[in-house]
Design brief:
The structure is a single chain. The protein is mostly helical and 93 residues long. The protein has a domain of 65 residues. The chain is built from two helices and no strands. The two termini are 30 Å apart.
Length: 93
């Protein structure tokens, strides 16, 4: 065994798991569920839109909104993952 002191090992830098971007991603994905599960907010016939009761057109509108929010969440996730990978690759060099 050697009595020579060992070089100190630098602690691994870990990024936090909960970041503002990840909170926004979660909100984008949860919002449609909350909107659709809160039935009392849209369980009515008025106002109608081109003869379609509010109950139906509100749900159809959320199909489009959900698509947009999912796309935003996906793009934010991809950007977050690229940033984490770049940080990891930069730290390992």
């Amino acid at each position: 065994m050697s009595d020579a002191p060992e070089a100190p090992v630098a602690p691994e830098v870990r990024q936090p798991v909960v970041t503002p971007v990840r909170v926004i991603i979660a909100l984008c994905l949860v919002a449609p569920f909350v909107a659709m599960l809160w039935v009392s907010s849209y369980a009515k016939a008025d106002p109608d839109f081109i003869g379609i009761p509010f109950f139906y057109w509100y749900q159809m509108l959320w199909v489009l909104i959900s698509t947009a929010l999912t796309l935003i969440a996906y793009q934010l996730w991809q950007r977050d993952q690229r940033g984490r990978k770049a940080l990891k690759d930069g730290a390992s060099r």
